[in-house]
Design brief:
It is built from three helices and five strands, in the order E-E-H-E-H-H-E-E. It is an alpha+beta fold. A five-stranded mixed β-sheet has the order 2-1-5-3-4, with helices on one face. The chain binds FE2/S2 (inorganic) cluster. FE2/S2 (inorganic) cluster (FES) binds next to loops. FE2/S2 (inorganic) cluster binds next to loops.
Length: 109
């Protein structure tokens, strides 16, 4: 299995570089384990809390893909903070094609 690098930009502007195995683990789980600020993952990946909300860098949107219908229904995702490049990081499975991915952590409420 390959190792990939994902860059997460926190709300304080600090860029955190994460090395992870591309084994299908979610970006939320990886970010939480490494202490990325703003990624809480309160519901454990169940599309119910949006405390794992990120903005995908536009250059990566097509590769990451759009949210599915369940993700789109997450209550907080329809709020003011939602943008066209919003994703729940618990729904982004780390895979080899995502090597170099860059996302920004969405502001908390
Ligand atoms: S961890 Fe709750 S929606 Fe992602």
């Amino acid at each position: 299995m390959s190792t990939i690098t994902v860059t997460m930009v926190q709300q304080d502007g600090k860029e955190v570089s994460l090395e992870a195995t591309a084994n299908g683990t979610s970006l939320m789980e990886t970010a939480k384990a490494r202490g990325v600020e703003g990624i809480l993952g309160d519901c454990g990946g169940g599309c119910a809390c949006a405390t794992c909300h990120v903005y995908v860098d536009p250059a990566w949107q097509e590769i990451v893909g759009p949210p599915d219908s369940i993700e789109e229904m997450t209550p907080d995702m329809v709020a003011d903070l939602c943008r066209s490049n919003s994703r729940l990081s618990c729904q982004i499975a780390l895979r080899p094609e995502l090597d170099g991915l860059k996302v920004t952590v969405a502001p908390g409420e």
